[in-house]
Amino acid sequence: MNHGLMISWYDLPDDGREAYLAWLHETYIPDVLQRPGYRWAAHYASVKKAAAATIRRGNAPVHKDAAAVPAGDRYILIFGAEHVNVFGQPTVAALHAQLPEPGRAMLALRSGERVNVMVEAARVDGPELKAYRGGANLAPCIQLGSFNCAWQDEQEILAWYAQWRMPAMSTLPGIIRTRRLASVAGWAKHAILYEWVSVEARNQKYLTHEDAHPDMKAWSDRMVAKLVHAPGSANLASRIWPPLSA
Questions:
Q1: Which CATH architecture has domain 4-241?
Q2: Strand (E) or helix (H) holding 180
Q3: Which end of the chain offers a freer environment for a tag, N or C, measured as fewer CB atoms within 10 Å?
Q4: Does residue 78 contact residue 7 with C-beta atoms inside 8 Å?
Q5: How many other CB atoms sit within 10 Å of the CB of residue 133?
Q6: 37, burial (CB in 10 Å: exposed 0-12, middle 13-18, buried 19+)
Q7: How far is CA 53 from CA 4, 146, 219, in A?
Q8: Backbone angles phi, psi at 96, to 5 degrees
Q9: Burial of 198 by CB count in 10 Å (0-12 exposed, 13-18 middle, 19+ buried)?
Q10: Residues 178, 126 contacting (CB under 8 angstroms)
């Protein structure tokens, strides 16, 4: 189990994007992975909702105050570590301050960035895990929801994930793994990370997986209406590093 994850959501301008991506993949990520405790990294580009099946969230609201919660979501960078304290030795902000000027200039291209440090609280394997040849790499496609809710609802949301949503994912075709995350730092207190073999598999299977279980679908509708998602959440994204051939 990968106990610590640091997740960054952000946007990039058109001008300088390719140079940034080359630097990130060829220099920044390999250098960070040399630091003690870091184990893996994955970089994703979000799939525009207009170009893919829309994620059904019932009446779940989305936080819209960009001054309080930065709204970047076109790219998602995830690092995995032995434990969350790795990300405090030093913090990502301190790590970035130590970079040479060219690296800081590349990081300055990011806009609307928000960061969460999270612990993997629970995991279920999906039916595609045995056939997955990616090793420790995160899946070719992820669906990542990050959200908050009233503390009075957290016990029932825990039960919903434990009794229905995560067990349902353990048998759903196209799923490699599902991870429930809890926050140590950052706006979102909760996150759910679905790992899919492809965007196509997700679109074919996820949106209808509750249709044969109307009682559970009703439970899901009640639960998702209690969540306040981060801007852009839940993100549907394709992996751009490591390359999908890796």
A1: 2-Layer Sandwich (3.30)
A2: strand 175-185
A3: N
A4: yes
A5: 6
A6: middle
A7: 30, 19, 22
A8: -70, -35
A9: middle
A10: yes
Q: What are phi and psi of 5, to 5 degrees?
A: -135, 135
Enumerate the β-bridge partners of residue 111: 11
Residue at 25: amino acid letter: H
Q: Scan for tokens 């949301």, then name that residue.
A: 157
Chain CA centroid to CA 91, Å: 19
**Residue whose structure tokens are 């995995």:** 80
Question: And the tokens for 105?
Answer: 């200039």
Sequence letter at residue 80? G
Tokens of 74: 């076109």
pTM of the complete model: 0.92
Tokens 């790590």 found at? 95
Q: Are 231 and 35 in contact (CB under 8 A)?
A: no
Q: Each residue of 40-50: pLDDT tens digit?
A: 999 999 997 53
Please name which of 207, 199, 197, 188 lies closest in space to residue 237, comparing C-alpha atoms. Answer: 199
